[in-house]
Write a structure and sequence with these properties.
Elements (H helix, E strand, L loop, with lengths): L11 E7 L3 E8 L4 E8 H4 L10 E2 L7 E4 H15 L8 E8 L4 E5 L2 H6 L7 H5 L7 E3 L7 H11 L2 H8 L8 H11 L1 H5 L1 E6 H10 L5 E2 H4 L5 E2 L4 E2 L1 H7 L3 H5 L2 E2 L4 E4 L2 H7 L6 E3 L2 E2 H8 L7 E6 L3 E7 L9 E4 L7 E7 L3 H11 L4 H10 L7 E6 L11 E8 L10 E5 L4 H22 L8 E5 L6 H11 L3 E4 L4 H19 L20 E5 L5 H28 L3
Parallel strand pairs: 1-6, 6-15, 6-16, 10-13, 17-24, 24-25
Antiparallel strand pairs: 1-2, 2-3, 4-5, 5-8, 7-9, 11-12, 14-15, 17-18, 18-20, 19-20, 21-22, 22-23, 25-26
Helix pairs in contact: 5-6, 5-7, 5-11, 14-19, 15-17, 16-17, 17-18, 17-20
């Protein structure tokens, strides 16, 4: 029987997460217990890049948001230096990682040679600073490629056809439209590009010293991969840019070995020369692994820079909304996901304006305002939103005639502002009501058996209470809110195990029956609504959710970005 006991005594498994605002590391031992973690924050630890929230916003190109590629390299170096003080790298037998989804890196011609001959006496930054055909990496927050999205959809027979083929309709943040924009607006950059990596395969490439493959799960976030065949779709490639397949390289399963760690890291950081680098994948797929999400009735909500809702399913049923990706830890299954751009940064914005820049004040306001907020509904879009496709803007309504006995009589009137406590509750309730409404429309479980919350805001008990009230189910949390780097460390152990066994083994065999003895177990944070008063509140939230979806539909018809 393959299991946790099959992991070698004393072995360490290292997981990275290269996210929007930071690079994190989590280290598991052979009992799958966290023994070390470390973080490098881009804004505070690397202030010379002058990023805000880890990104640049182009004032001359509406919706263009990107990060400096070389910053991610420097962050990795700094993270390793900090982590070296906590663990012995020679005991790390496998490493894997998570990357913010959709972001892309453009290696210029000749860079494979640079990667494969790194000098361990010199820094990565000094050797890779000239390795890119553009120093700017478009990231998931970018919304400047609407034109390219429509062109790609039209070329394959429409948005639904593209979704059936690739798992999603064309989205501005997806890598295919981003590549097409570069090909159209900066053809010299595209021509000089030898390899296009995702953030995940880019970081893996640095670790192995050659171009690592894009994995099938993160590859599904590009609008370029056939979701059923798990190969590049020639139809979409041709609709995107010429000679694209050779610039992308091959795809690989998420559990596959990318290679042994590069001699650079063996000599400079004393990694063992046999340390395996397992394919990196996207941050949401890694969170799915880290949360041990393996029951179809469960949902996860990740409350980070972006907010995401995701679950698992046995079959792919793509639609015009949401996303279908291959399950990173179950080769025959899929994960389904909804993504919101306005997550923690937008909550912080409301906190700064209405709650004295204090989470304590924010939470106090949330606690002292009653559920349902007197029918106050808010739509807060600091950035162009993905779901629904609405532009930057703030819309506030008060729903009147709000009694359960007369759902058809609900009317709304628009107002300019709420008082500060109501504003705080309106953003939290508004985000959760939107998640519930879109999750149900997408066919996710209703109500879920349970929700596992992760991401920075999952440590906020007031927000968790609202989730339980609005979804009508228990809410669990995990030991650490950064489930992506934890999932990457678990996937490092899983990839090592699959390699040892000579083929795929279920990831659950590594913790089944012992979950509570590892760092992977989820603990109950808020119980499901049960008494009559709770159930009455749930009914009213259901009404409010339906009203919100109706108002949202009108907003999309009036000012939507589709």
């Amino acid at each position: 029987m393959v299991g946790r006991s099959s992991l070698p005594d004393g072995a360490l498994f290292l997981g990275f997460d290269s996210s929007t605002q930071s690079v994190k590391a989590t280290v598991l031992n052979n009992d799958l217990i966290i023994v070390a973690s470390e973080t490098v924050n881009f804004d505070s630890d690397l202030p010379h890049y002058k990023t805000e929230g880890g990104v640049y916003r182009d004032p001359t190109d509406d919706g263009r948001i990107f990060s400096p590629t070389i910053m991610w390299v420097e962050a990795l170096e700094l993270l390793l230096e900090k982590l070296k003080l906590k663990i012995d790298f020679s005991k790390v037998v496998a490493v894997s990682g998570s990357g913010q989804q959709h972001g892309s890196v453009y290696w210029k011609k000749g860079s494979q040679d640079v990667l494969s001959s790194l000098d361990p006496s010199k820094s990565l930054v000094s050797q890779l600073k000239d390795a890119f055909s553009t120093m700017d990496s478009p990231i998931w927050m970018d919304s400047s490629t609407t034109k390219q999205c429509r062109e790609i959809e039209n070329a394959v027979g429409g948005a639904l056809e593209l979704s059936k083929l690739t798992g999603s309709r064309a989205y501005e943040r997806f890598t295919g439209p981003q590549i097409r924009k570069i090909y159209q607006t900066a053809p010299h950059i595209y021509e000089n590009t030898e390899r296009i990596s995702l953030v995940s395969s880019f970081m893996a490439s640095i670790l192995v010293g050659y171009y690592a493959s894009i994995d099938e799960t993160d590859g599904a976030g590009m609008n370029l991969m056939d979701i059923n065949k798990r190969t590049w779709s020639k139809t979409v490639l041709e609709a995107t840019a010429p000679d694209l397949e050779q610039k992308l390289g091959n795809l690989a399963p998420a559990y596959a070995v990318a290679g042994r760690i590069s001699p650079y890291f063996v000599e400079r950081h004393q990694f063992d020369k046999n340390c395996l680098a397992i394919q990196w994948s996207g941050d949401n797929p890694n969170s799915l692994a880290g949360l041990t999400l393996n029951t179809p009735g469960d949902l996860a909500i990740s409350l980070g820079t972006s907010d995401t809702v995701f679950g698992i399913t046995a079959e792919a049923k793509p639609s015009l909304e949401g996303h279908v990706f291959p399950n990173p830890v179950e080769p025959d299954g899929y994960m389904v996901m909804l993504c919101y751009k306005n997550g923690s940064l937008t909550r912080e914005d409301v906190r700064n304006q209405c709650a004295e820049k204090s989470w304590d004040v924010f939470n106090n306001y949330l606690e002292k305002t009653p559920p349902l907020n007197g029918g106050k509904l808010g739509f807060y879009y600091k950035d162009h939103e993905i779901l629904p496709p609405l532009p930057v803007g703030f819309h506030r309504y008060i729903v009147e005639n709000f009694s359960e006995s007369a759902p058809d009589n609900l009317t709304e009137r628009e107002v300019q502002e709420f008082d500060s406590p109501s504003e705080v509750r309106a953003i939290v309730e508004g985000q959760m009501l939107s998640m519930r409404g879109h999750a149900e429309r997408f066919g996710m479980p209703n109500p879920p058996k349970r929700i596992i919350a992760t991401g920075g805001a999952s440590s906020n008990e007031s927000i968790l209470k609202s989730i339980a009230q609005i979804f009508g189910c228990p809410v669990f949390t995990v030991e650490r809110p950064d489930s992506a780097s934890l999932g990457a460390a678990l996937r490092a152990a899983h990839g090592w195990m699959c390699n040892k066994e000579g083929g795929f083994v279920p990831i659950s065999c590594m913790y089944m029956g012992n979950l509570e003895k590892t760092s992977l177990g989820a603990k109950l944070a808020v119980q499901a609504p049960t008494d009559a008063e709770d159930m009455e509140l749930l009914k009213k939230y259901t009404l409010l959710m339906k009203k919100r979806m109706e108002i949202e539909r009108h907003l999309v018809e009036k000012i939507g970005r589709v």
